[in-house]
Design goal:
globular
């Protein structure tokens, strides 16, 4: 079952400059594992050494933050869309 995964610009160098890729898996964790197998280095950018999604990486399933669902255990199905959104920090205090 293929799920559409939207790749943010900073990670596209790991997906051969593709903005959208298809991935397989029953859960978000499975998807991330399979993305890591297809695109070397991608899982390392998304997950910490324990395999948990890094706190500055936001993942949305059909526009809903997985943190408000079941996290990495959130089930996915064919036709779903997963968006990876890195948090943006910085700026200047005025």
């Amino acid at each position: 079952m293929a799920v559409k995964v939207l790749i943010p610009t900073p990670l596209r160098n790991l997906t051969n400059n593709q903005a959208e890729v298809a991935a397989e898996g029953a859960t978000i964790a499975d998807l991330i594992d399979n993305l890591g197998k297809s695109y070397n280095g991608l899982k390392d950018r998304l997950c910490d050494e324990n395999g948990k999604v890094r706190r500055f990486v936001n993942i949305y399933l059909n526009e809903e933050d997985i943190r408000f669902l079941q996290g990495e255990s959130t089930a996915v199905k064919a036709g779903d869309q997963v968006s990876i959104v890195p948090a943006i920090a910085g700026g200047m205090t005025v």
